[in-house]
Design a protein that fits this description.
By secondary structure, this protein is an all-alpha fold. Helix content is 68%, strand content 1%. It has 16 helices and two strands. A two-stranded antiparallel ribbon has the order 1-2. It is globular.
Length: 354
């Protein structure tokens, strides 16, 4: 393929209309959440942390929220607390707006590759409607942490890829300057930071033709991000900042390998079929109970379908299909090595994966 030298034509009006459509779809599908109260255990942890940060803003840089040191989500929660207090509607409305922004960024990212614009419309709308499990992120206020992290993730991908495709991968550009700033913010979310770097490497490999055949994968802009991520991790270790609480998926190589692949299949299946153990489905209407009863068979069929499509797509698909398949696996990988003591699968992380 020939190198892309110019960005897609500006379509300000159609982009604005798409943003409004996505916002409307997001509220149409999840507007029922506006009637929710604070109900999840982590919601009350968020409220407590936000109240403390509102009294003492310096706690933003030293507070441990839900076993993860991520000051930017805590800053969001603090602003929400100042704006809405203990009125949950404002909190849920903010989450829906962030979700709509993420859906629009998905639309914008697909367009960056020069793929058929209709594919971008479909991708953004599917994201807004909540494909798979990730709709859970907008149904409790603590889920805004994942929403905001995904916003940073998608912004970085958009800016880096557009700078690489249409700006020659220049270091001295406003897009790359924003990438560096946003990467610092997202580095606090370690699993997301790891998958982000791997996705950028995959992009450079699969879109080498569009980038220019003579350009290398590990060019200075990417090397700077890799070195920066390593330096940030070392600083965190040396300063004793709180790390993500986790336990390995197995105590020996065999158990780890088996659990790793088991986790991967389960995450991908739950992305399409999120129903799992819950009093809501056990006591729901007959149709819901029937689907829940058939869940073991449905999951097996989905697993075979996903594996078959993945293998077929990698062997026979074009480069965009291969890239997006790789992106899905890369996004799941950091969580497949983890065994969560209180949650057999931490399905909230399917939000960025989806």
């Amino acid at each position: 393929m020939s190198q892309v030298t110019a960005p897609p034509p500006h379509r300000t009006l159609s982009n604005l209309i798409m943003a409004l459509v996505i916002l409307g779809v997001s509220f149409a599908f999840y507007g029922i959440a506006l009637d929710n109260s604070f109900w999840h255990p982590e919601d009350f942890e968020v409220l407590r942390s936000a109240q403390e940060a509102a009294r003492d803003p310096s706690s933003l840089l030293r507070h441990d929220v839900m076993s993860r040191f991520q000051p930017l989500p805590l800053a969001l929660f603090t602003l929400e607390y100042r704006a809405f207090g203990l009125d949950p509607m404002g909190w849920y409305a903010t989450s829906l707006v962030i979700h709509a922004i993420n859906a629009w960024l998905v639309f914008w990212l697909v367009n960056a590759f020069g793929i058929d614009r209709r594919v971008g419309y479909l991708a953004g709308l599917l994201f807004a409607m909540g494909v798979g499990s990730y709709g859970k992120a907008v149904l409790f206020i603590a889920g805004a942490e994942n929403l905001l992290t995904t916003t940073l993730y998608l912004l970085i991908l958009n800016l880096y890829i557009r700078n690489d495709l249409y700006g020659g991968g220049r270091i001295r550009s406003w897009r790359y300057a924003l990438v560096l700033l946003l990467c610092l913010a997202v580095s606090f979310a370690r699993p997301t930071a790891i998958s982000l770097l791997l996705v950028l490497i995959a992009y450079k490999v699969f879109f080498r033709g569009e980038r220019g055949e003579k350009r290398k994968v590990f060019e200075p802009p990417l090397l700077i991000l890799v070195v920066g991520a390593l330096a940030f991790w070392i600083v965190r270790k040396q300063t004793g900042l709180v790390e993500f609480a986790w336990a390995a998926a197995g105590k020996n190589p065999w158990d780890f390998t088996v659990n790793f692949f088991y986790n991967m299949i389960n995450y991908l299946v739950h992305m399409f079929f999120p129903i799992h153990v819950s009093r809501l489905v056990e006591t729901g209407n007959p149709l819901v109970r029937a689907i829940y009863a058939a869940a073991p068979v449905i999951r097996v069929l989905l697993a075979w379908g996903i594996i078959s499509y993945g293998v077929f797509g990698f062997v026979f698909g074009n480069r965009p299909i291969r890239f997006f398949l790789a992106w899905t696996l890369i996004s799941v990988l950091p969580y497949c090595v983890v065994q969560f003591p209180q949650d057999w699968l931490n399905i909230r992380y399917l939000y960025p994966v989806s």
